Amino acid sequence: VLFALDTAGAVRGLVRVPIRARDWEDVSAARCPSGPCLYLADIGDNGRVRQRIYIYRVPEPEPAQGETAPPEVFSATYADGPHNAEAMFLLGDDLFIVTRDRVGAIYHATVNETRALTFQHIGRLGLAAVTDGEASPDGRSVVVRTSHEAVIYRAEDLTRGGDTPYLRIPIDGLREAQGEGVALNGRMLYLASEGRPWNRAGQLLSMRCDLLE
Could you give the CA distance from residue 60 to residue 84 in angstroms, rounded to a whole number? Predict the structure, then answer.
């Protein structure tokens, strides 16, 4: 189920996606031939045993729509074998996955008509336990987060295999229940955390940062 939230965190709609996912970890907004789309990344693999992962694409629904159209399905593999990952972002037709491990490796594939993707290793960020990554709407910047910091990169640097950010934002002091999601829009940074049944609910946090480009 997709939850439509406004920037104040109010729920504006719930939209069902007609798929059965194994370990759905990321949702990314991007353009596709039909217009604005959402890419849903079924890429979690804690045991690193999955021979294939899957990425689903649907036209971005209206909050009151109820259910999305049947998704397009992209079957994917890594060129060097299975990896666990929770972070995916798009720049045009290019898909990027950042692994959740001790190094934060970046893998790249390009959307194609065959819907069969092979992700190739292009670099390492040197970040441990990455939980999400997203490109800004203008495609100029990419934010990658862990439980401890949000790290901002120029998109053109990442696509060339670079690993040097232009901004690091410590977020330990926010005391998130379990920090998972991140998004970037202009000078606004958004963070989302998962709730814990025995502890407290998750949060949606928004912060303005004038150092963002």
Answer: 26
Quickly count: other Cβ atoms within 10 Å of residue 84's Cβ. 17
∠ CA(56), CA(62), CA(64), 5° rounding? 115
Nearest to 169 by CA among 207, 137, 126, 125: 207
DSSP state of 132: E
Decide if 200 contacts 177 (C-beta within 8 A): yes
How many beta carbons lie within 10 A of that of residue 149, not counting itself? Answer: 16
Sign of the dihedral through C-alpha 165, 31, 4, 194:
negative
Q: Which helix (H) or strand (E) holds 159?
A: helix 155-159
The string of pLDDT tens digits covering residues 165-194 is 999 999 999 988 889 999 999 999 999 998
CA 143/CA 149 separation, integer angstroms: 10
Q: CA-CA distances (angstroms) from residue 3 to 10, 15, 32?
A: 10, 7, 21
Give the angle subtended at the CA of 171 by the CAs of 170 and 172, to the nearest 5°.
105
Q: Which two tokens stand for residue 48?
A: 């690193």
**Per the confidence metrics, is the pTM higher than 0.85?**
yes
d(CA 155, CA 28): 15
SS3 174: helix
